[in-house]
Predict the 3D structure of the following.
Amino acid sequence: DAKTTQPPSMDCAEGRAANLPCNHSTISGNEYVYWYRQIHSQGPQYIIHGLKNNETNEMASLIITEDRKSSTLILPHATLRDTAVYYCIVRVVGGATNKLIFGTGTLLAVQP
Amino acid sequence: DTAVSQTPKYLVTQMGNDKSIKCEQNLGHDTMYWYKQDSKKFLKIMFSYNNKELIINETVPNRFSPKSPDKAHLNLHINSLELGDSAVYFCASSQVGQGKDTQYFGPGTRLTVL
């Protein structure tokens, strides 16, 4: 079972920041927070991951609370092409079993 | 250049048939995976191979048999297809290592069993 909880859907206006929350209250000390997204009819796409510190890359920013029990994915300037299901996943990195356990995710609808 | 490719993209077949789906990655990764996404959109791991060795087998029926001829290929053969096998099957690959096992997914194969 997925160890994360996300809202089923969110709306965002084009050009505005999209903030997607994720709760992972049972996260272990060696588990990272990963974010993937799945645009309709495509394979999941890696966005970003982090352990404790906030992270930023060309796609998004990841804010992890100090107690690590929740995080927020930020898309700074959402476009229509960002409409997708966003998955928050917690997992150990580098272990022998590297499977991703997907939950139900958040359907982000970017509105024009 | 496609990093993870799958063939075919669509597969329509009759119940009871045997079919194969092929996956290739040109990323030089040592680990490959098969995931299944059912009609309710749940994505679930099926198998994982590391350097051609089976690592993960998630209680998948024996009718499903993965085969990895080399590190760059992981094929999925399905015997005696059933209606419930209809789904989208995604292949993925990663390079296992501390902080380096981001998984990259293929475009998927939509299997329809009639």
